[in-house]
């Protein structure tokens, strides 16, 4: 349908004064915005648009030992680098869509957010070069302003160019590329640091700063993709007479008072689950070095397993959950599997590849089953507010738990930290059980099979039409 709509849009004409169909025939397929070859080029640019952001987000994790030694900070201070990323997104997740739709537009907004990501990484690296940890924190704050909003812009481009049957595949590919960026970071930045150290003859904050500045090249690459993508989108708008992409988000904070108990339980599951994943990965490299006696390269590789597994599995699980339904059951499976993985890491010396593989599978499954549930418990006009609030409290939880995890590790060690993460997952399990029974008592849609859900939706549509 999307392709047919675009072809119809060609009829009025194009910028060179020729009829749309004639202009289309003169173009090579790769230059024609309505052709598949051109859309593949655009898709590649969309995927690489967030590569630099995801690559640099976990730079601190990949270089945890080096950051703490070279900057002479403890773990609590180190985890501030993650907290400062999350703080601005407690608020900005409500306004990212508004800025794209009403202020900047998708093209300028994407470039501005990419510039924030670039500037944040450069400030972060400069702080290391000048041995100023406060400047590194400021850089992460600037980086955070651009990072989450850039993801919103990326999704908006996807909807604008791939409406219809290709959209879910495009979202899956974008998520996979994001995980590739995180994986490459985990496995490469330690080697880059070692190479700079050998070239300079010694370690220190200068070596760290140069390493992080090299990491900023990926952000510059993504900024280039944003500029090229903006040009191609502007060109397509002129040729196809199509409007700029919009997020479609409608944020009304007054809607919060109408949120159901089921939605608040979904929020609680989201926070309790993710605070046991991202802070753990942020501190994981040294954990594997100290407990399992891995080398730095081995520790970086195993710490990236969660991202490696989620890259190919996320689209697969998304398709599976769409076809089967039963979202609450899948969420319960994911949360219980995650608890099992944390208990294995805490209380056994089993090969950690097993636990981290379980963590990667459960992380992918939960994302595919949990986030779509919001659409089943709130009206369509409140979706933007609900998702914005969900991201807001997720970032608030991550900021607070990142600091708390660093304090726990400094004072009690890794075993107590793993017990703390396991306790967070147990809270998520309690919330899932409550959600299951609440949904059962109220006859909700959350745990229906896909065919039951489709049948109910058709029946509701018939009743609405009758009324």
What descriptive keywords fit this protein?
467 residues; mainly alpha; Growth Hormone, Chain: A; 80% helix; globular
Q: What profile does the largest beta sheet have?
A: none
Separate helix tally = 23
Counting helices, strands and paired strands, the structural category is mainly alpha
Helix content: over 70%
State the shape: globular
- CATH homologous superfamily identity of the largest domain: MFS general substrate transporter like domains
CATH architecture of the largest domain: Up-down Bundle
- Give me the Rg, rounded: 23 Å
Mean pLDDT across all amino acids: 86
Beta content comes to under 5%
Low-confidence segments, given as residue ranges, are: 1-19
What number of structural domains do the residues give?
2
N-end to C-end Cα span: 30 Å
Compressed to H and E, one letter per element, the order equals HHHHHHHHHHHHHHHHHHHHHHH
Compile the SSE list and pairings.
Layout: H1 2-9, H2 20-26, H3 36-49, H4 51-57, H5 59-62, H6 64-71, H7 75-86, H8 89-92, H9 96-104, H10 106-129, H11 133-161, H12 167-200, H13 205-240, H14 261-274, H15 278-292, H16 296-303, H17 305-324, H18 327-347, H19 352-370, H20 374-377, H21 383-412, H22 414-442, H23 450-466
Helix pairs in contact: 3-11, 3-12, 3-13, 4-12, 4-13, 7-11, 7-21, 9-10, 10-11, 10-13, 11-12, 12-13, 12-16, 12-17, 14-21, 14-22, 15-16, 15-21, 17-19, 18-19, 18-22, 21-22
Region (Disordered): 1-20
Keywords: Lysosome, Membrane, Transmembrane, Transmembrane helix, Transport
Subcellular location: Lysosome membrane
């Amino acid at each position: 349908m999307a392709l047919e709509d675009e072809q119809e849009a060609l009829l009025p004409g194009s910028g060179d004064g020729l009829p749309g169909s004639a202009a289309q025939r003169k173009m090579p397929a790769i230059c024609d915005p309505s052709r598949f070859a051109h859309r593949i080029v655009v898709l590649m640019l969309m995927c690489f648009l967030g590569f630099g952001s995801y690559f640099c987000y976990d730079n601190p994790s990949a270089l945890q030992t080096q950051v703490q030694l070279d900057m002479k900070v403890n773990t609590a201070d180190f985890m501030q680098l993650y907290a400062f990323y999350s703080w601005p997104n407690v608020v900005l997740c409500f306004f990212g869509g508004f800025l794209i739709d009403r202020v900047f537009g998708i093209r300028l907004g994407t470039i501005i957010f990419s510039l924030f990501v670039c500037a944040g990484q450069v400030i972060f690296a400069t702080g290391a070069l000048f041995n100023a940890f406060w400047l590194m924190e400021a850089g992460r704050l600037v980086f955070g302003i651009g990072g989450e909003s850039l993801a919103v812009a990326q999704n908006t481009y996807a909807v604008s160019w791939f409406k219809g049957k290709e959209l879910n595949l495009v979202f899956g590919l974008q998520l996979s590329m994001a995980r590739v960026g995180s994986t490459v970071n985990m496995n490469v930045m330690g080697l880059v640091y070692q190479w700079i150290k050998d070239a300079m003859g010694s370690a220190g904050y200068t070596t760290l700063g140069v390493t992080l500045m090299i990491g900023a090249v990926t952000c510059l690459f993504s900024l280039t993709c944003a500029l090229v993508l903006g040009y191609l989108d502007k060109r397509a708008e002129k040729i196809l007479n199509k409007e700029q992409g919009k997020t479609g988000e409608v944020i009304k904070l007054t809607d919060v008072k109408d949120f159901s108990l089921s939605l608040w339980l979904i929020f609680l599951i989201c926070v309790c689950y993710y605070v046991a994943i991202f802070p753990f990965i942020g501190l994981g490299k040294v954990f594997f070095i100290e407990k399992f006696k891995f080398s730095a390269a081995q520790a970086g590789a195993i710490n990236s397993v969660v991202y490696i597994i989620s890259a190919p599995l996320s689209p697969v699980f998304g398709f599976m959950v769409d076809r089967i339904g039963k979202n609450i059951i899948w969420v319960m499976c994911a949360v219980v599997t995650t608890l099992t993985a944390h208990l294995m890491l805490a209380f056994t010396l089993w090969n950690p590849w097993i636990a981290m593989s379980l963590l990667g599978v459960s992380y992918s499954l939960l994302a595919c089953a949990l986030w779509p549930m919001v659409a089943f418990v709130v009206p369509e006009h409140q979706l933007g507010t609900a998702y914005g609030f969900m991201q807001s409290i997720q970032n608030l939880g991550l900021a607070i738990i990142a600091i708390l995890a660093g304090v726990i590790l400094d004072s009690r060690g890794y075993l107590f930290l793993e017990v703390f993460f396991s306790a967070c997952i147990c809270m998520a399990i309690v919330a899932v059980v409550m959600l299951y029974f609440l949904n059962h008592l109220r006859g909700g849609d959350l745990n229906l099979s896909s065919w039951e859900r489709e049948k109910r939706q058709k029946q509701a549509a018939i009743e609405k039409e009758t009324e």
